[in-house]
Design brief:
The chain is mainly beta and about 375 residues long. The chain has one domain: membrane protein fhac: a member of the omp85/tpsb transporter family (Porin), CATH 2.40.160.50. It has no helices and 20 strands. It has strands at about 5-10, 15, 35-45, 50-60, 75-80, 85-95, 100-115, 130-150, 150-165, 185-195, 205-215, 225-240, 245-255, 265, 280, 285-295, 300-310, 325-335, 340-350, 350-360. The strands form two sheets. The protein has an 18-stranded antiparallel beta sheet that branches. It has a two-stranded antiparallel ribbon with strand order 14-15. Strand 5 and strand 6 form a beta hairpin. It is globular and about 65 Å long. Residues about 1-25 have low confidence and may be disordered. Its main location: membrane. It comes from Rufibacter roseus. InterPro entries: Bac_surfAg_D15 (IPR000184).
Length: about 375
């Protein structure tokens, strides 16, 4: 059964300044700490959850002594309840210190939420769709130290504890054939390398972002299985005409005793829009996508996008005639002077049409 995500975010915007917000003086240094809070109400509808309501406060801060080139730090909790007594809660932090020399990023998340599972592989049929509900605690922490201009090296830690509370009667997950169908505890640690010279964190107009990550999840760290995950994320932003052409190449790989929750997916609000989140999943995935983002009027801008990708069990199984394709367009509303946006996208694929509302660009 095909699902259409219908949502509405940004019903209203309430902004407040919780400390003096002084402009940068002529010497390019902020003399007084600046802290801004904004509160964004959230409302949406999906067939799985019915109506959902909540709020997302966002704090943007700059320390006294900040330079014009220093990146802002943000704190962003969010809380959503649905009419089916489900909950999504997140607390996210993103701190830049010592004139961008150190970067601390992380979040804590608790969800009681429905998901869909189609099996494993690049050719799973739509008829294989199974609905399941899980209670999940996610914790993620990453620290990066600048080694040279725009080059960073750091470590990342992930913890996931998931209890699957509801599955479909007679379904694949109920048979416990796939690893993770009875719930998981996964704990992973590994190095991360970053090169980032984007001119803006939230809506880049030019620059390059390259991130490479390797994580070992194992029983010694408290996990229930041993496996490895690798991620290569390459992005390029370039001004073309009145707008910005953004491109991303995303490669994810996994090996070992990999639970289905950690397999490489296709589909969702940020990659391969036009497919349900996790519509296809396997050990490895390759995704190529591009956006063209252009101004319209006032705080409103538009975007058109396209994507192609596939998942495989082995790297040698990748084939040019097995890629899935999707595309679409949407609108963005700029929330503040830092460049944060809320977006609405309509995406199409052979699976149908999907509507997405989200904070921030897809990449």
């Amino acid at each position: 059964m095909k699902k259409l995500l219908l949502g509405l975010a940004l019903l209203a915007t309430a902004s407040g300044v919780c400390a003096q917000d002084a402009p940068l003086p002529a010497d390019d240094t902020l003399r007084v700490r600046s802290v801004k809070w904004s509160i964004f109400p959230i409302a949406y509808y999906t067939p799985e959850t019915r109506f959902g309501f909540g709020a997302k406060p966002v704090q943007v801060r700059r320390s006294a002594g900040s330079l014009r080139s220093d990146r802002p730090s943000t704190i962003s909790p969010s809380l959503v309840f649905t009419t089916r007594k489900q909950m999504l809660s997140t607390f996210l932090v993103d701190f830049w210190r010592k004139h961008n020399a150190q970067h601390i990023h992380g979040w804590v998340e608790y969800n009681n939420y429905p998901y869909v599972f189609f099996g494993v592989g690049n050719d799973t049929p739509a008829e294989a769709e199974e609905n399941y509900t899980s209670k999940t605690i996610n914790l993620y922490a990453q620290f990066e130290q600048r080694l040279a201009r725009n080059f960073y090296l750091g470590m990342r830690y992930d913890l996931k504890r998931e209890w699957i509370t509801e599955v479909e009667e007679g379904g694949f997950l109920q048979s416990n054939v796939v690893l993770g169908s009875e719930g998981i505890t996964s704990s992973g640690l590994g190095p991360v390398f970053l090169y980032d010279n984007r001119d803006n964190l939230f809506t880049p107009g030019k620059g390059v972002f390259m991130q490479m990550l390797a994580q070992s999840y194992n029983k010694l760290l408290g996990g229930s299985s041993n496996f490895m995950r690798y991620r290569i994320d390459l992005r390029k932003y370039h001004t073309v005409g009145p707008g910005v052409l953004a491109g991303q190449s995303l490669f994810t790989f996994a090996s070992g005793e990999v639970p289905f929750q950690f397999m490489s997916p296709l589909g969702g609000v940020n990659q391969m829009r036009g497919f349900l989140e996790g519509r296809f999943r396997d050990h490895n995935a390759a995704v190529l996508q591009a956006d063209y983002r252009f101004p319209l009027f006032w705080r409103i801008s538009g975007a058109v996008f396209g994507a192609t990708g596939q998942v495989t069990r082995k790297n040698s199984d990748f084939s040019f005639n097995r890629f899935k394709n999707s595309g679409g367009g949407g609108l963005r509303y700029r929330l503040n002077d830092e460049g944060m946006v809320v977006r609405g996208d309509v995406a199409y694929s052979k699976e149908g049409m999907y509507v997405y509302f989200a904070f921030g660009e897809a990449f």
